[in-house]
Amino acid sequence: MNTIIRSVLLALLVVSGPSQAQDSEFNLDALVNRVVAAYGGTALTEMRNVEIVEAYIGPNLGQSWAPELLDLSKNNFRFVHDIENGRAYFESYFKARGGIFPNMIIVNGDNAWTVNLQLGRYGEANSPDPYTFGGGTMRTTDTLLARQLHNARDQAEYLGPTRWMNRPHERVKIPFPLSPDLTLFIDAQTHLVTRMTRDNPQLGALDYVFGEHVVVDGLMAATRVYFSVAGDPNLIGTGRTVRFNRDLDAALFALPDGLEPEGERIDTSEMIVNRLAGNVYHIGQNGGYSIFVDTGEAVIGCGGYPDLTGRLAKFQELIGAHKRLAYQVVTHHHNDHLGGIDEALSMGATLVTVEDTVEPIRDISQLQPESGRFLTVNGRMTLGDGNGRVELYDVSTVHSRSNLLFYVPATRTLFMADHFGSPYAEGVPAANRNTVSMAEALEPLDLNYSRIVTAHNARVYTARDFERSVQSFRDFDCPDDRPLCSR
Ligand SMILES: [Zn+2]
Fold first, then answer.
1. d(CA 256, ligand 1 centre) in Å
2. Distance from the alpha carbon of residue 360 to the mean position of ligand 1, in angstroms
3. Which of 44, 344, 414, 480 is geometrically suited to a Cys-Cys bond with 328, CB 3.0 to 4.6 A?
4. Domain ranges, residue 380
5. 246 and 49 Cβ atoms separated by less than 8 Å
């Protein structure tokens, strides 16, 4: 490249860098000070505690019963963060076609508990860090974003002016614990946060919109909030109450009376390997697992989620041969189960699924798979033979119109997604309507399974675990003393 062209290009690169040019003339620190003042000054910077109660309608993107129609859920949250004393309380209810899913987490000193209101049990929480369970609620609270802007002002980056809702705004990027960076949209006149965006590597742009700001306890807070994923509404706020720096009841951070302890939580921070036979393994980490079967010539896999490649490499290491992934079975159309799709396609696998799921796969894939890359199951299908034989059954449940069950007769092992499981090493997993409808769908198939492994859990369950879970099912009734549940 000749030197003149190169220096012109370099000059273009320098002037087009967005922040350096503007940082020199823009006083970011002064903007942060105005935001702090708009949100309550020292009441914000010296916040002792916060309580957020919020209710949403959730269009359940990518999680509906059938791909052609969104169905709505309700999501109610209460998060109390006692910043001053390092305590936290989180209570949530997810209400959808599978029933009501209550969740409670309490952090008090060295203790971090999760409480199962349905079964009257408590266990060790996944993490004592309030950002792991309360981070979502913090991000839907503009006041806490303003506080984070103040706390992280040394790492804040000015991204320049923009117009939003036809008003002049300033954009500032800040870090946020356990999250990609946040971009705040700050109204240039009121200095209120009216929008926040961040990028999810799988889902795309996540957008938070804040409106109807009011003064509460001397601080400013939005009363109207909604949250979108890649431009589509995902949580539509129907009511929220925020309180600051009140006297908190110590009982809130104590374990409720009369609970039975759960067994030990399985540590899934490292890769888990369950050997089901010399040629069949269940492998995964955190909340994503696959089953792999060596058919002799090749490998059949099932269970999506990112890092399919890593799990397959582990399998290849265990069987001591670099056999290719010939088939990757996709259980159903829900977007979390399409996580490893492009990895499977890149490895040359044929995707085995039902007709319903082909379109959602095309929507999520970056690779535009041709129709030859799909093998569709109509009711049932068999792949492989002998101890590499895999039987696939399409069953309809409350959870999804179509679910492919992956059955390995030689080891009497059944792999399923989303209907059954718990994070604990022992004990009967709580059943919900999905579990019961799966039991009903399994009945006529008369499969001779003795073990169940799943897409979300590390444990190998017995057929008896499943049976006892189904028998113990009862619909969750909202307790009278928990009004958030009934909203
Ligand atoms: Zn699902």
1. 32
2. 13
3. 344
4. 272-471
5. yes
